[in-house]
Every structure is written in C-alpha cells, then in structure tokens.
Amino acid sequence: MTQTCTRRASYIFDKSTSNIPTGYLKKAAQEIGLISKEAIASLVAISAGESGLIPQTESHVYSNGRIRQIFPNLTENQYKRALTKGITKQKFFEIVYGEYNPKRVGNRNIADGGRYYGRGYIQLTGYGNYKRYADLSGIDIIKDPELVNNPIFGAKITALYFKDRVNVNQYDKNYFQKALDAVGYNVGDIKQKKIEYYNCYLLKL
User: Fold this and answer.
1) What is the pLDDT averaged over residues 106-113?
2) Distance between CA 177 and CA 49 in Å, rounded?
3) Is the CB of residue 45 less than 8 Å from the CB of residue 198?
4) Among 61, 79, 155, 193, which residue has the fewest nearby CB atoms (within 10 Å)?
5) pLDDT in tens, 3-40
6) How far apart, in whole angstroms, are the C-alpha atoms of residue 190 and residue 7?
7) CA 16 – CA 74 distance, rounded (Å)
C-alpha cells in the first residue's frame, strides 16, 4: 500500500511554525551521526507526537479517566490528591513521579519528582535521564531543568537520547519501532499520531 500523509500529519508539517524546530532536530541528529531517513523521520515524528514540535513542560492537569490511563499504577489516595483542584505542578509531579516508585524514572526522592518532570521535544523525565543527558550534552539541565525546553538545546538532547537509547542500526527497518519503545508513553491515541507523522515525514526526506 502506498504511504500518504494524513490530514493531521500534513497539517503539523506544513505549518510554517513547525519548520524551524524540525530543522533544529534534523541538524542536531546529523551532527552526531544520525543521518539515515529512518532515524531522522523517527526523531521528528516522535517529537511531533510527544510535543507537537514545540518543546514544552508536561501537563499536570488531567481528567480522572486520563490520569488513570497515563499513570495506571497510582493508589486511590494518590489519584485523589493528584486531582485536587488547583494543585501546583510541583506537588502533582511529586506524587506521580516522586511518591510512586521514583526509581522507575531515575529519581532519588520525592523532591526529584517535583523538579525533573517531562520537558522538551520528547518529555525527558526523571533525575537519572536529566543527569545522563546533562553529562552527554554539556548542558547543565540538572541545575536548570528548563533548558530542556530551549529549542536548540532540546534538539541536541533529543538527538543524543535517540543515539544513546535506540539499540538498533539506524538503517534498520525496525528503527522506528525501537525508537517508540525507547521514548515510551505510547498510549493508543499518542502512538497512532506518531505512526502517521513518521509515514508522512519519511516521504518528505
């Protein structure tokens, strides 16, 4: 079957505002040796699915149904407190990333949960990841986590994440699937967007 761009995929890549961050991501990938169409399309498509190609901070406002989908292993008490009206971002992420099995995302304690939550093109999360990519990039995102949301710094960190975590040759036909697994957060609707974006952007390379 011939691959085509869905309306949703065409829209995100045809917007003029998406051209600049896409360029940052592509350049950052090429600078560290990720030059295959599969790798570049995967990086751009997954970033589009995670953040709409706008590096940003993870949302902390959820409906009851959505929070249970995204964070399925919290206790009822944790759900209740996380859904408290007006809860601060710090307190919310202390619950979902700090209280619940913090080592799962590389946090050392509850406070790390409220500091190293999802940011950037692919929603980098957890002290362990921030420390790893601070060391690899030379960008001090431990001291200033908001630097992950800088479009240029964020692109470099994203490219390094793919090079470091996608454990398959960049020309392998399964690269995209491996990249999906490496980044995570592949609930049904998010995963479908990433697939659409990948198929579309691959045609543009």
Assistant:
1) 95
2) 14
3) yes
4) 61
5) 789 999 999 998 877 889 999 999 999 999 999 999 99
6) 16
7) 40
Residue whose token pair is 């350049």: 27
Neighbouring C-beta atoms of residue 81, cutoff 10 Å: 16
| Nearest of 175, 176, 174, 161 to residue 55 by alpha carbon | 161
Asked if residue 109 lies in contact with residue 123, where contact means CB atoms within 8 angstroms, the answer is no
Measuring CA to CA, how many Å separate 138 from each of 15, 65, 142, 161?
A: 32, 39, 11, 13
Q: CA of 73: how far to CAs of 89, 99, 100, 125, 126, in Å?
A: 19, 11, 8, 17, 17
pTM for the full model?
Answer: 0.92
Give the separation between CA 204 and CA 13, rounded to whole angstroms: 10
What the block records as the tokens of 110 is: 């509850």
Round to whole Å and give the CA distance between 120 and 157.
9
pLDDT of residue 193: 94
Q: Could you write out the DSSP letters of every residue in 51-112?
A: HTTS--PPP----HHHHHHHSTT--HHHHHHHT-TT--HHHHHIIIIIIS-GGGGT-SSHHH
pLDDT given at position 1: 45
Q: How many residues does the chain have?
A: 205
144-to-104, 162, 170 alpha-carbon distances in Å: 22, 22, 31
